[in-house]
Design a protein that fits this description.
By secondary structure, the protein is α+β, with helices and mostly antiparallel strands. About 30% of the residues lie in helices and about 25% in strands. It has four helices and five strands, in the order αββαβαββα. Strands 2-1-3-4-5 form a five-stranded mixed beta sheet. Helix 3 links the parallel strand 3 and strand 4. It binds tetrahydrodeoxyuridine. Tetrahydrodeoxyuridine binds next to helix 2.
Length: about 130
């Protein structure tokens, strides 16, 4: 079991705030995410749905892509929160994106009932797909 540090608790608060901004009129399932980079910068993500359902994007990807779009690639930690019975379990697509964009990140998974789990990208997706050296 990995520890829930003060820094991760702060990141979780940011993810919870981002969740309030989810655009999810189809699923009504709001997800929030937040990313911390080595420079100390913070990036937010929420799921953003679309009437053309596959055009929807998950909260985790919005947060990671926001960091990259701002030129911040050294992802230290990622927090994700949703209203699930257990700490939210990121989808396979987001795990693959974490594997490539944030391979050494600590990941805090949480729900609205104060349940949490601290894990690592390498635990969420061992042996992910890659064909370039990183
Ligand atoms: N969703 C996320 O934002 N992250 C995940 O890891 C799983 C699913 C979103 C996508 C969609 O808007 C809604 O949750 C229901 O699938």
């Amino acid at each position: 079991m990995h520890e829930l540090t003060t820094e991760l608790t702060e990141l979780l608060a940011a993810a919870a705030a981002a969740r309030e901004r989810a655009y999810c009129p189809y699923s009504r399932f709001a997800v929030g995410a937040a990313v911390r980079t080595a420079s100390g910068a913070l990036f937010y993500g929420c799921n953003i749905e679309n009437a053309a359902y596959p055009s929807t994007i998950c909260a985790e990807r919005v947060a990671l892509f926001s960091a990259y779009a701002a030129g911040e690639r050294a992802i230290v930690a990622l927090a994700v929160i949703a209203d699930t019975p257990e700490p939210v379990s990121p989808c396979g697509g987001c795990r693959q994106v974490m594997f490539e964009l944030a391979p050494r990140a600590v990941v805090l998974l949480a729900n609205l009932r104060s349940a949490w789990r601290v894990t690592l990208v390498e635990e969420l997706l061992p042996a992910g797909f890659a064909f370039i050296d990183r």
